[in-house]
Amino acid sequence: MIDSAPGLVEALRAAVPGGVLTEPVDLIAYGFDGTFYERTPPLVVLPETVEQVSAVHRIATARRIPITPRAMGSGLSGGAVPLAGSIVLGVARMDRILEIDEIDRVAVVQAGVINAHLQAEVEKRGLFYPPDPSSLKQSAIGGNVAENAGGARCLKYGVTGDYVLALQVVLPDGTVIRTGGRTVKNVTGYDLRRLFTGAEGTLGTITEITLKLLAKPKHARAAMAVFDRIDDAAHAVTAVMASGVLPSAIELVDNLTMRCIEENSPIGLPLDADAILIFGVDGNYAGVLADELATIERLAREHGTREVRVAHDAAESERLWTARRSISPALARRRPNKLGEDVCIPPRAIAELVRRVRAIAAEHALEIPLFGHIGDGNLHPNILCDKTNAEEMARVAVAARAIFEATVELGGTLSGEHGIGLLKKQFMELDLGPDTLAVMRKIKDALDPLGIMNPGKVFPDPGGMEAFRL
Ligand SMILES: Cc1cc2nc3c(=O)[nH]c(=O)nc-3n(C[C@H](O)[C@H](O)[C@H](O)COP(=O)(O)OP(=O)(O)OC[C@H]3O[C@@H](n4cnc5c(N)ncnc54)[C@H](O)[C@@H]3O)c2cc1C
Description:
The chain is an alpha+beta fold. The protein is built from 16 helices and 18 strands. It has four domains: 8-90, Uridine Diphospho-n-acetylenolpyruvylglucosamine Reductase, domain 2; 97-215, Uridine Diphospho-n-acetylenolpyruvylglucosamine Reductase, domain 3 (2-Layer Sandwich), CATH 3.30.465.10; 219-256 and 277-324, Alpha-Beta Plaits; 335-467, Alpha-Beta Plaits (2-Layer Sandwich), CATH 3.30.70.2740. It has helices spanning 8-15, 24-27, 50-63, 115-123, 141-147, 154-157, 192-196, 230-241, 255-264, 286-302, 314-325, 327-332, 350-363, 390-409, 428-432, 434-447; strands at residues 20-21, 44-45, 67-70, 87-90, 97-101, 106-110, 127-128, 164-170, 176-180, 205-212, 214-215, 219-227, 249-254, 275-283, 305-310, 337-340, 370-373, 378-385. Helix 8 (230-241) packs across helix 10 (286-302). Flavin-adenine dinucleotide binds next to strand 3, helix 5 and strand 10.
């Protein structure tokens, strides 16, 4: 591609001095994300300023060269994997926290700021940025916004998009726009913040984000409830959510997932149980948290828990959350690959989906550990596999499709937080229907008439679900 675009490398080098990679050994690192897809880009450009991003877009537009924006490459739907000869536009060097304002309670950050870094900085000032993807140490705010990422605490506090007050975005042709502002309320015009949030890099490159901050709750506690039947755990979740108590998090971890965690770094999880629930509660009054934990314990017992262990101090709580965050790498030790799903269903349907996923695993002779942010119905059935085994991958594809179909039938959606990317695009019509998908296409065509932004993502290739292959 570089050879057939004379002057491209020189133009980019002039626009982004010292920020253009062309050596194969450098490019390999930009060809994959957290999925098993791989496509080495022909070229990577790493701008440091919005002016440089805009210049890259203008050069790409003039030459009809596709661009795949990339933050930290931790995505789980293939979104940052460059297709169709795309160059990669990485924002990792745009990693400055520009402002933390304690009066307005906002943070202004460049797109490449790591989530955990921002959390640590705002917490030093008694402030709080709730969205906490398990990848918080290896994902950036730009990637979080582009995927509208969630996390454990999003049950109580909402997802990334609920904290986006303003965005600076470079449109495909290089035009720089700002949308939103510093006010909590803002209904002036179409809500373009929401449009670019979760657009997975298909409409433009996000360069700067203004985020809403909260005051940090003074206390946080965690507890684990142990169940001999995962069904009981699912019913306990529904009961807690209907009780008026709003935990900061309710996470499900099933037996196979616990075994993977314990093989990876043991913390003494109950391996004879079918599933555990990890509950988080937080707030400013310790007495209220104790009451909430008592209600959770009572409801868990009414729904068959055999034991509730309340973490006695912050260190014990942190061990539980660290174990939860270690699931993805722990699964990677069991089989070479995994297809990580991210379906989301209404609370009423949680137990039924859990039952169906287990039936699908048995029917296709696959290991599907089940975990997720169960309080908000967001489940991550991960299909363990070996991508070099064609026969197994064919079964994985059939099982993945069956999970999507069950989810939609139960009133749920394909993705709660990981996005569609490459992995789920063939199922978009199943979830949205043809008319809504057609509206999305019109928006895409209006903003990106040349189709240069992150091609091959989100929109299905011809053939729909029948064309789904891994
Ligand atoms: C161990 C592990 C745990 C995870 N846990 C969670 C979780 O709990 N919750 C959750 O939501 N996700 C989770 N994820 C998925 C992933 O971390 C998130 O989707 C995250 O938001 C991706 O951020 P990133 O910086 O790595 O983005 P990337 O992977 O680099 O990019 C993701 C998408 O955003 C686009 N993009 C990136 N930067 C920009 C930009 N500046 N402008 C426009 N588009 C852009 C890319 O084109 C791509 O489509 C997890 C991943 C791993 C590996």
